[in-house]
TrEMBL record:
Residues 64-301 form the Radical SAM core domain. The lineage of its organism: Bacteria, Pseudomonadati, Bacteroidota, Flavobacteriia, Flavobacteriales. It comes from the Bacteria. This is PA0069 family radical SAM protein. Pfam families: Radical_SAM. The keyword Iron-sulfur applies. InterPro entries: Elp3/MiaA/NifB-like_rSAM (IPR006638), MJ0683-like (IPR040086), rSAM (IPR007197), rSAM_sf (IPR058240).
Length: 357
């Protein structure tokens, strides 16, 4: 494999049309030629942080097959740039493209900690695990500057409320002391996404994420500090990382993971066009094969929105992948399990401190 993305450091290689807009924007060849003659940059490829002010921060999740009931996202858009990311489509709701805009126009919800605290203090709110990063990574590069995830963890600790985290960034270790404090009362679990053991694969699939070595080290540190970790082998992409399921499972089990979960890649909405463009530019030698195998997992389509089948797929290739994951669980996680989060303490800490009466 000799991957050659045309826009370095990014997953998507274009901005696709926003389906909610009547008009579209394109960069024409004559404009590019003009920029070249004038010595100007047609696209500076910079990331912008844009403040937004939503009225709420916690969302009820209606989907029956994503394994969470409530989620929150301090950031919309994600600089990690994972080419397969299902969250890309949500950027269209904010008026941006699911392509490069998703990676370069990061919306920052600076009031997230205040909004979270207001919710947890409500008499009507009953404790239920809230997942940070249900859509975009709460430890993406923006977190270094804004520290919203850290502030929200402090709120969860103050009110003794259960929280789960999904991330693929080693920045989570910055908040190790907070995580340890939450873990003492069984109020935290972490889900780390590790999709490959190959740095070459990681760089093209997830260009601005932590290295595989860093993620395995992060997993080990969290586990050594009694913070329960599940590893997301997700998504599994035929002929890209599908051959790594067993070695991946062994590596994360050895590093301390208590369980694994997986999905088979699905390319809904604008993601199909973005992924197809990317793979034809980045991995042209296998592009058609990969796209056809993904289609074979979803009834002949890249797009699959059917509850019950969209995550696991169907057909022979999907069946092989799912069987390998079951085998990996039996082989490497036989006597392991993730603990259930504690929802019993929060009511006593509704005001941020223990009620004596």
């Amino acid at each position: 494999m000799n991957p050659k993305p045309t826009i370095k450091g990014r997953g998507a290689q274009l901005n696709v049309h926003n389906k909610f807009f009547e008009l579209s924007h394109e960069i024409r060849d004559d404009f590019l030629e003009y920029c070249a003659r004038e010595g100007e940059e047609a696209d500076k490829n910079k990331t912008l942080y844009l403040p937004v002010f939503p009225k709420t921060i916690v969302n009820k999740v209606e989907s029956p097959d994503v394994g969470m009931a409530f989620s929150m996202n301090m950031y919309q858009g994600c600089e990690h740039g994972c080419i397969y990311c299902y969250a890309r489509n949500s950027h269209e709701f904010w008026g941006y493209s699911a392509g490069l805009d998703f990676e370069r126009r990061i919306l920052v919800k600076k009031d997230a900690p205040k909004l979270l605290e207001a919710l947890l203090k409500k008499k009507s709110w009953k404790a239920h695990p809230i997942v940070m990063s249900g859509n975009t990574d709460c430890y993406q590069p923006a977190e270094k500057e804004f520290e919203l995830t850290k502030q929200c963890l402090e709120v969860f600790l103050k009110y003794k409320h259960p929280v789960a985290i999904i991330t693929k960034n080693a920045l989570i270790l910055r908040d190790l002391e907070l995580l340890k404090a939450l873990a003492k009362d069984n109020l935290i679990n972490v889900n780390i996404s590790i999709t490959s053991l190959s740095e070459t694969t990681r760089r093209v699939l997830e260009p601005r994420t932590a290295t595989i070595k860093k993620r395995l080290e992060t997993l080990k540190v969290l586990s050594q500090n009694n913070i329960p970790v599940n590893v997301m082998l997700a998504p599994i992409i035929p002929s890209i990382n599908s051959h790594e399921i067993l070695p991946l499972a062994k590596a994360v089990s050895d590093a301390g993971a208590l369980s694994i979960a997986h999905t088979i890649v699905r390319l809904n909405g604008a993601i199909g066009e973005i992924f197809a463009d990317w793979i034809k530019k980045t991995l042209p030698d296998r592009a058609d094969k990969v796209l056809h195998q993904i289609e074979s997992c979803h009834g002949g389509n890249l797009n699959d929105s059917r509850y019950g089948t969209r995550m696991r797929g169907e057909g022979k290739i999907a069946e092989q992948i799912n069987m390998l994951v079951r085998l990996a669980r039996k082989k490497y996680f036989k006597d392991k399990a993730m603990p259930k989060l504690n929802t019993e303490l929060h009511e006593q800490y509704k005001d941020g401190q223990l009620k004596l009466f």
